[in-house]
Design brief:
Helix content: 55-70%
Number of strands: 5
Mean pLDDT: 79
Structural class: alpha+beta
Low-confidence stretches: 63-77, 350-356
Strand order of the largest sheet: 1-2-3-5-4
Length: 356
């Protein structure tokens, strides 16, 4: 079956793909930061267009809900992609097709009805892939969060066993020895009683430390207070740390505030513990539609492109927490040049700290 829309799409496919790639590059999309990703997404766009050309020529359009299924009935979503990046790619491809086809001369431009069918097919194909990839990415993040929670439970169990239970065991042993020495060696018995008291105190101190790590951010405490309080609990360090928080924190929903604190706190701790810096600056700015933070140090730095070095394993967790909020974490560093971590979190809903 002859199709003017199919012919136009086939004739100008290379132009559409070039416009699509240029649009992704203009948004600094992470989809094109690696060469194999660029080739994969362009190849997928070509397959989408080829499928639409085939459907237009057959003239038998599958009903909505089945046109996007592969031969085995599975969504052709491909590898997981961050929903924000996937949406950018979807919009870029749709816009590229519209702009190029609308530039066709009047005598060869497809008629309105045929263009409507073309755009309907294009929309279904793009939405199907966007949905499948986004669902895959969200599933991956949920798995990672579940794994992180399990790791945290094991860490707490280790601390309770090694610290709290250890001190209590020492105290119990000292109490028993006190009873044994009470009559015949009263001085030694008093020493054992004193040791038991000290062990109980140390046990309570260890328990407080564990509880502090578990305690959620206090609603009445500001981000600035929570961050500086965390610094007070860290081991002694020589770095000067400057913390600045600006903007109205009431714009932050409780869940976003908690996750943001965990992200910035992890970056702050990494800088204090591993950067060997003389100056660390922590800046957070809360605006009506977004939160941006920058954690910067003048320390030893590292190769941010290579695998995260020892002591920086928390960066993966930081990125994933930000992605769950629809945001991002960017790490800029080179050996000997310090490190800069940029955090972006979009805010949703109204401006009263409540999400929609």
């Amino acid at each position: 079956m002859r199709s003017t829309a199919a012919a136009a799409l086939e004739r100008r496919m290379d132009e559409i793909l070039a416009a699509y790639e240029a649009a992704l590059q203009s948004t600094d999309s992470s989809l094109l930061r690696e060469e194999h990703n660029s080739e994969r997404y362009l190849a997928e766009a070509r397959r989408i267009l080829a499928h639409i050309i085939s459907e237009l020529r057959r003239g038998t359009y599958l009903p909505h809900g089945t046109d996007y299924l592969g031969a085995d009935g599975v969504l052709p979503g491909g590898p997981r992609t961050h929903p924000v990046e996937s949406e950018r790619a979807a919009t870029a491809l749709f816009d590229a097709v519209v702009v190029v086809l609308m530039d066709e001369p009047d005598d060869v431009r497809p008629a309105g009805a045929e263009v409507a069918v073309l755009f309907s097919l294009l929309h279904r194909q793009i939405v199907a892939r966007h949905t499948a990839r986004s669902v895959a990415h969200i599933g991956y993040l949920l798995d990672r969060i579940g794994s992180a929670h399990n790791d945290e439970r094991r860490r707490i169990a280790r601390e309770l066993h090694d610290e709290v239970a250890g001190h209590l065991g020492t105290a119990l042993n000292s109490f028993e020895l006190h009873e044994i020495y009470a009559e015949e060696q009263p001085e030694l018995a008093r020493q054992k009683l004193g040791g038991a008291r000290q062990a109980v105190r140390e046990s309570l101190g260890s328990l407080r430390d564990v509880m502090t790590g578990l305690r959620h951010r206090i609603d009445t405490a500001s981000l600035h207070t929570a961050l500086t309080r965390d610094l007070d609990g860290l081991d002694e360090h020589s770095a000067e740390v400057r913390v600045s928080v600006t903007g109205d924190e009431s714009w932050l929903a409780a869940e976003s505030a908690e996750e943001l604190l965990l992200i910035v706190r992890e970056a702050q701790r990494n800088a204090v513990r591993h950067a060997r810096a003389s100056l660390i600056t922590v800046e957070v700015h809360v605006a009506p539609g977004e939160v941006r933070a920058a954690i910067e140090d003048d320390g030893i730095g590292f190769d941010a492109v290579a695998t995260a070095p020892r002591g920086h394993s928390g960066m993966l967790s930081m990125r994933e927490r930000a992605e769950l909020l629809g945001g991002s974490v960017t790490v800029e560093s080179q050996p000997g040049c310090g490190t800069r971590i940029l955090v972006f979190v979009p805010l949703k809903g109204d401006m009263n700290g409540e999400s929609a």
